[in-house]
Amino acid sequence: MAVIPYKEADVSLLARLMRAEAEGDGKLGMLMVGNTGVNRVRGDCIDFTDINSIRDMVFQSPGGFEATQKGYFYQRAREKDKRLARNVINGKRYHPATNSLWFFMPSGECPAQWFGQWNTGRFKSHCFYSPTRSDCPNVY
User: Fold this and answer.
1) Which alpha helices (H) appear in the chain, and where do they start and end?
2) Edge-to-edge order in the sheet of strand 102-104
3) pLDDT by residue (tens digit) across 66-114?
4) Which helix (H) or strand (E) element contains residue 120?
5) Which residues pair with 127 in a beta bridge?
6) Quick count: other Cβ atoms within 10 Å of Cβ 25?
7) How far apart are CA 16 and CA 72, in angstroms?
8) Which residues, including other chains, have CB under 8 Å from residue 136's CB and lie 6 or more apart?
9) Which long-range contacts (CB under 8 A, 24 or more apart) does 23-26 make?
10) Tell me, what's the pLDDT at 137?
């Protein structure tokens, strides 16, 4: 059962985002990016109070994703990418992105904090950051 509202076009949009941001980190990396996106829709907190849909989340500016802002969000959604997107839309979570609202790819080690949120771990090239439960209870 979906944890956020969506239409079929949203599945493709999320799948494209996941692929653009983390295809190099494989299936699990893409799922973690999807977790972060779904959490932004669920959150209604911090920088994400006006994010009410997958479309809002994917194209948020400022504060959105590099893939949509720097032009590498052009690949179509493949069926295997859509399956991954449906997993996270339906509430599957993957550590360290379980409750994350941010991720990025540093050139070195993961900083302890990013936008005031604590690092929850790294998966391959991406570091993930989660708010506290009191700052953003809807992602927990």
Assistant:
1) 8-22, 26-43, 54-58, 66-69, 79-89
2) 102-104, 126-130, 117-123, 113-114
3) 888 877 788 889 999 999 999 999 999 999 999 999 999 999 999 999 8
4) strand 117-123
5) 104, 122
6) 17
7) 10
8) 43, 45, 46, 99, 101
9) 24/124, 24/125, 25/123, 25/124, 25/125, 25/126, 26/124
10) 97
**What pTM did the predictor assign?**
0.95
Nearest to 117 by CA among 52, 63, 51, 62: 63
CA 68, CA 91: separation in Å to the nearest integer? 24
Structure tokens at 119: 């690092």
Q: Is the peptide bond before 96 cis (omega within 30 degrees of 0)?
A: yes
Peptide bond into 62 cis (omega under 30): yes
Instruction: Kindly state the tokens that stand for 129.
Output: 């950051």
Q: Pull the structure tokens for residue 56.
A: 């809002």
Alpha-carbon 11 to chain mean position: 13
Taking the C-alpha atoms of residue 69 and residue 47, their distance in angstroms, rounded to an integer, is: 17
